[in-house]
C-alpha cells in the first residue's frame, strides 16, 4: 500500500524533541482560519478532530488528521511533513516556542500510486 504521509529527517528530529518534552503527540491540519493550513502538533488528546475529519496516516505512532474539506481538495496528493525556522501563522502548535513551524510539501500521486493507496479513516 502507498502511504499518504511522510516526514523529512529534520522534522522527525523535531518530533522526537517534542515527544521527549510533551509525551505522546498528535497532528492536525486545518483548512484555514486563524492557523491557516499549517499543520499543528499537539499533545495527544489536545485537539479533537471534527466529524468527518480524515486520519491520513501516522508520524511515528502519532495520528495525523486533516480537515474534511482540506482532504477533499488534497486527497490525490502525498503529504510530506517538514519544518522551517520561524513562526507560522497559527502559534498554537508545540514547536512554536522553539522558533520553528511545521510545513507540508505536496505532490500529486501517480496514476499507479492512486490504484494502491492506504485507506483513510473518517472521524465519526
Taken from the alpha-carbon principal axes, the silhouette is globular
Structural class: alpha/beta
Straight-line N-to-C gap: 24 Å
Number of helices: 3
Number of strands: 8
CATH architecture: Sandwich
The CATH class name reads: Mainly Beta
CATH fold title? Hypothetical Protein Aq_1857, Chain: A
* Strand arrangement in the largest pleated sheet: 3-2-5-4-8
Which percent range describes the beta-strand content?
Answer: 35-45%
Number of domain modules = 1
Major beta-sheet overview: 5 strands, mixed
* Topology order in helix (H) and strand (E) letters: EHEEEEHEEHE
Overall average residue pLDDT: 93
Provide the helix percentage: 10-25%
Over the alpha carbons, how many angstroms does the gyration radius reach? Answer: 14 Å
Structural overview:
By secondary structure, the chain is of the alpha/beta class. The chain is 20% helix and 35% strand. It has three helices and eight strands; from the N terminus they run E-H-E-E-E-E-H-E-E-H-E. It has helices at 9-22, 68-74, 111-114, and strands at residues 5-7, 25-29, 39-43, 54-59, 62-66, 77-85, 100-108, 121-122. The strands form two sheets. Strands 3-2-5-4-8 form a five-stranded mixed beta sheet. The longest helix is centred in the first third of the chain and has 14 residues, at 9-22. The radius of gyration is 14 Å and the shape is globular. It starts with a strand and ends with a strand. The model has no long low-confidence stretch (mean pLDDT 93).
Amino acid at each position: 500500500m502507498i502511504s499518504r504521509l511522510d516526514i523529512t529527517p529534520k522534522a522527525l528530529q523535531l518530533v522526537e524533541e517534542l515527544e521527549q518534552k510533551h509525551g505522546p503527540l498528535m497532528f492536525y491540519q486545518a483548512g484555514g482560519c486563524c492557523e491557516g493550513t499549517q499543520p499543528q502538533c499537539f499533545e495527544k488528546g489536545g485537539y479533537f478532530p471534527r466529524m468527518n475529519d480524515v486520519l491520513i496516516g501516522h508520524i511515528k505512532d502519532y495520528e495525523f488528521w486533516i480537515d474534511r474539506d482540506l482532504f477533499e481538495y488534497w486527497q490525490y496528493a502525498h503529504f510530506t511533513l517538514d519544518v522551517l525556522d520561524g513562526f507560522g501563522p497559527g502559534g498554537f502548535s508545540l514547536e512554536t516556542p522553539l522558533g520553528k513551524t511545521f510545513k507540508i510539501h505536496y505532490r500529486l500521486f501517480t496514476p499507479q500510486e492512486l490504484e494502491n493507496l492506504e485507506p483513510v479513516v473518517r472521524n465519526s
